[in-house]
Each structure stands twice: as C-alpha cells, then as structure tokens.
Fold each of these.
Amino acid sequence: MKLNLLASAAIAAALFTSPVMADDDNDGAVTGAAGGAVTGAVVGGPVGAVVGGVVGAIAGTALDPPPRKVVTYVEQQPIPSETIVVEEVVEVGKPLPKTVVLTPIPEDPTYAYAVVNKQRVIVDPSTYTVVQVLN
C-alpha cells in the first residue's frame, strides 16, 4: 500500500510540474504543485495527489512576488496626503477589504496597488489579495 501511495505521489508530481518547468516565471506554481501533490497523496491517496497538485499550483502562482518593474513603479508613486486606514492586518496572502480603491499598474494590469495604513501594497486586482507590502 505504501509503495502504491509513493508511486502515485511521484507520478502526480511529475504530471503537474513537468509542463510548467518550461516557463521560469512559474517557480511558485512548480513548488506549489509538487508540494501539493505529495501532501495530497499522503492525506488522500492518488485522488488526493491530483487535487493537492492542482491546488498547490494555483496557490504557488497566486503568491509569486510581482516583477521588479511593478515594484519600482509602485515605489515611485507619491503617497497621498490622506491614506486609507483599515483595521485588518495588511499582510501577504490576505485580501484587502473591497472598499479599498485600487490603482491599476499601466505596465502590468495583472497587478494594482493602494496605499493602506501608510504602506504601499501591491495587490491582485481580481481577488484583492495582497501580493507584496512595501515599506
């Protein structure tokens, strides 16, 4: 049984990571898929490996740090005199409240930013998830 479980995890990890490895920008997806597949296999067997690989790939991709050009753009933007204040802790992986107005990044519309609690925050505009907090 353990041999089948390990073999299933190895196969699932190979299936989910091999096609992604051709693109260097998806390191988070590769790590997430491999880790998710192995964890899923341990918890749920072959089906768990498949589900874990998919979930891990999505999570790994979602939290990749933004490209340097995005960070530079946000760092160069002035901080407005009145910034948005939220009670929630602003941290990577957590969503901002939908009441926060996001400013799109012209060079890369897959990211947006806001100044929240006097901090520049880079966000995934489709989910409002914080991708990076700049000091």
Note: The two ends are 50 Å apart (CA to CA).
Amino acid sequence: MSTRALPEGRYGRVRDRAPRRWRKWVFTAAGLVLGVVVTWVAYVNIGPAPISADRLSYANRPGNVMELTINVVRDDESRPGVCIVRTRDKSGAESGRKEVFVPPGNNQSLQTTLIHSTDLPVMADIFGCSYTVPPYLSRN
C-alpha cells in the first residue's frame, strides 16, 4: 500500500515535525531541579536524627515492672530532650509506656527508668526521642 500525495496548496505547507532544541533543555533542567528537591526532602526526613537512643539493657522487676537502661546520643548537649520508652507483653502488644526526661549535659547520657506494665512485660524498647519536651516534664 502506498501513500498518496496531498493536493498541492489545498492543505497548506507540510512542515517537518523535528523536535525543538529548547524543549530538550527545558525538560532536562526541570528534571534536574526536581531531582535535587526530592533528594533534599529525603535527606531532611530520612537523614540522621538530632537525638536518638539505644537500648543497653532491660530486666524484669517484681509486680509487672521492667527496668530499662538507654544511652541517649544527641547533637546539641545544651538542650534537654525526652525519650518515649515502652514495654511489650507476650503477644507483642504495648503494655506500658513512659516518657524519660534527658537533662542537658554530655552528648551521650545513660538513663535508667522503671516502666510499669498492665501485663507481664517480656521486653522493652525505645519508641523515639525528641528535643520537644512537654512542660510537665521540664525541670526548671
């Protein structure tokens, strides 16, 4: 099957549909800007936390109580912080929770606390840490 030529002058001039060069540069620049923005947002949200804690030890105490020792590491030793710690029962459900105040001091701080549980606790872990200390926890 062959293509028929259009009648001359009836439909206007047939243009060559070659892509314009400026479009390629605009889309390349837009892609680079978008990539930088996505990278920056990911770094801010997923990057290193300014305050964090590691669980060092935990042990059961009488009466559904667990003792937990954590090591808090922070980037600004002059600011107080707070860490939320919790216990879990045999089913894995959270059975106790406590906020631990971390006073200003060294950039590494050992904190030991007792967490009361509603059921027999089998493990303790750290939910998270923050520099946003609630007013009822701050020690002035």
Note: DSSP finds one helix and six strands in the chain.
